[in-house]
Amino acid sequence: MTVREGLLALLAEEPRYGYQLKTAFEAATGGVWRLNVGQVYTTLDRLQRDDLVAVDASGEQKRYALTAGGREALGAWWQATPVDDPPPRDELQLKVLLAIDRGPDHALAVITRQRTALTRLLQRHRRELRSNAEPALSEQLVADALAVRAEADLRWLDLCESRILRARNDAPTPTNGGTP
Amino acid sequence: MTDIRVVRDRSRAPALELTDVVKRFGSGATEVRAVTDVTLTVAPGELVAVMGPSGCGKSTLLHLAGGLDDPSAGTVRVAGRDVPQMSATERASLRRTDVGYIFQRLNLVVSLTALENVMLPLELEGTGRREAKRLAREALGSVGLVEQLDRFPDSFSGGQQQRIAVARALIGSRRLILADEPTGALDTMTGDQVIELLAELPSRHGTAIVLVTHEPRYASWADRVVFMRDGRVVDEAAPDGAPGTDAVRQRVGAPT
Known about the structure:
The complex is a heterodimer of chains A (about 180) and B (about 260). Chain A is mainly α.
């Protein structure tokens, strides 16, 4: 998503002033995306140039509304589904894969370290969430997203650990006649 | 061995103290070491989560902590008392008065009402029926259940049944609650509510909790998360970094 789509989505609800759009944008995105008001006006200028937004300049401030073209562009954006295919390179994944290459013990040590760090992050998120007596729905959902992503990484690390342990336990143990 | 305790309140004995604990099953060629050299101290009012892959020894650790099983070596103390040294009667009393248990399933007696289930540990201990009933209502109230307490467990939802189990584990001011996958049978939102309830107990009642879980989501409520692998404690996590963490990491060999 870009600021452009965010503004179109907010204007679909009702016509708004530039500064109103800034605050509405920040509230709707749960505080994860701060805008400066200049950025809002630059984007509105471009939307106006592309006939996606119309301006009502009769009052003291300019008031912006969606055009039919804007509504269509917004509809296309709602319809589009973001899919990472192929998925982006993942730092954690690559680190563990390379660690396995150096042997199971090293891989397990790397997994332990990554997992502890991620668990700490999850504990911190949890504390922040608990200290916020009445979080807004958007704030809750942002916190959920952070937590669920950390959980996904942790689950993956658990699977790595289980598979490495199984492979290690299934590996034939050297007999007395074999070379150590 | 380095101790990994975080004792917040030194005026009281640790709720749980495991020192160099070993648990072996079988012998000779078939010997399995379920727990190896585990040292873990849980302070009053502390919530500690134990995580690790299947077969890592976490459930065995919980059985040892609750006196359901004896260690092959090492010491297990609950509230300063040496559990393996206890007689069968003392042990039964420990399980009824000092330690509360919550399991994934089979927590409640199906032929007893919600209220009777919570009263059970007190009645077994010899508390009068009237007093047991009063305390049971209080415990159920503290987990948000105040109505229809004369219904049988089957007529409550999974989340409500775990609330009843929490109330029963809590009754009689337990020092230590041992919870083995208490959210295992619940959906995420209901699981959250049960963990939230458990996580409030340490600050409200000074109870210590050991929570065995494989869900990072639920472990994140803990003051400390202890990781086990192959029967050993391999690391621990605390949001602000527990004092013993680096010592543990050194012992197991940090990656370079």
